[in-house]
Amino acid sequence: MIRRIGDLADPALEDYRDLTDVAIRRRVEPSRGLYIAESQPVIARALEAGHEPRSFLCSERWLSTLEPLASGWPDVPVLVGPEDVLERVTGFLVHRGALAAMRRPELPPVADVLAGARRIAVMEDLVNHTNVGAVFRSAAAMGVEGVLVSPRCADPLYRRSVRVSMGTVFQVPWTRLEPWPGGLDALREEEFVVAALALEDDAIPLDQFVAEGLPERLALMLGAEGDGLSRGAMEGADVMITIPMGSGVDSLNVAAASAVAFWATRPQPS
Question: DSSP label at 39?
Answer without folding.
Answer: S
